[in-house]
Each structure stands twice: as structure tokens, then as C-alpha cells.
Amino acid sequence: MKVTILPIDEAHAASFRKSLDSVASERRYLAMVEAPPLEQVESFVRGNVANDVAQFVALDGQRVVGWADIVPARTYAIAHCGSVGMGVLSGYRGRGIGRRLLESCIAKAWSQGITRIQLEARADNSHAIRLYEHLGFTHEAVKHRGMRIDGEYFDTVQMSLLRHEA
Fold it and tell me: With the C-alpha atoms ordered 35, 36, 37, 39, is the resulting torsion angle positive or negative?
């Protein structure tokens, strides 16, 4: 199976939501445990497309099997910052799809003037943390009890990638 990485399009919204819901329902990788309603996801995607936000999807045929986005901050003093969101369906992990998605997002974010990319991940998500480290992200902080899912606390790590300006 060949997986293609493309900028998200409004036509991908429903499949993106299914993928998001699948990863969220694992209750391990995302801060949410279920995807928002389709209308909200469609609005998010429509806004990202309209604003040319760095958001890419991994497609197996027409099915979204992974996604990544770097959403810029809206506030003036932190408008140079973008925050990462990403996920890959369980059957597609370990194939370099997440890396390809994030590399595409980073390149686009840099080209749009973002100079700081930040993320927060569960401290026990070692595969994702290794990916971020390989791409140059550095650790900034540990947030003790940064997430709570089903009454259980999890530490989170905050990481960033800075664009070195010439």
C-alpha cells in the first residue's frame, strides 16, 4: 500500500475526523478521547485551508490514515509560534508516515514565517518523543500531572523547535 502525503482539503474532513476519533479513542496519544462533531472538524479544516495553515494528511487511497498540523498562534506577541497536532492510525505506525507528515508541516511553517514550533506530549509516548528529538525538537519542561484521562494522571513534556534565522 502506498501512502501519499498531501495538504489537507475540505474533501478530507470526514475521513480526517474518523482518523482523529480512532486515535483519540485509544486514550493514549491525544489530549482528547473522542473527535469533535463533524461540523466542528469541517470548520477547523475549512479555516486551515482558507488561511493556508500547515496541515497535511496521509492518504491510503481516499482514506486519511494520519495527519499533522502546525497551527499558528493568533495573539500578536506569540504569532511567530505554531503548535503541533498529529496522529497516525495504529495499523500505519512505524512506517515513517508521522515523520513525513511533520517534515512537510515544518517546511511549510518555516516558509510562512513561523520561527518557533512547540508541542506537548505524554511523557510515556516514547516513540513520538524520539521522532521529535530526531527532527531537532528540544525538551523545555516536564509538566507533572499535565494530563488526566479516566482519573489517571500523566506527566507531559513540552518541546520546541526553533528556526535559526540568518
Answer: negative
Q: Please say whether the beta carbons of 92 and 66 come within 8 A.
A: yes
Look at residue 137 and give its three-state secondary structure. Answer: coil
Query: Could you tell me the three cell numbers for 52?
Result: 493556508
The closest alpha carbon to 82, from 52, 123, 108, 114, belongs to: 114
Task: Report residue 35 CA to chain centroid gap.
Answer: 14
- Identify the residue with better confidence: 1 or 41: 41
Query: What is the layout of strands, in order, in the sheet containing 3-7?
Result: 3-7, 54-60, 63-72, 81-88, 116-122, 152-162, 138-149
Fold of 3-118: Aminopeptidase (3.40.630)
Please tell me whether residue 29 adopts helix, strand or coil conformation.
Answer: coil
Write out pLDDT tens, residues 121-157.
999 999 999 999 999 999 999 999 999 999 999 999 9
The structural domains of the chain, with segments of one domain joined by +, span: 3-118
- Cα Rg of the chain, angstroms: 15
Interatomic CA distance for residues 148 and 158, integer angstroms: 16
Q: What does the DSSP 8-state code read for residue 120?
A: E
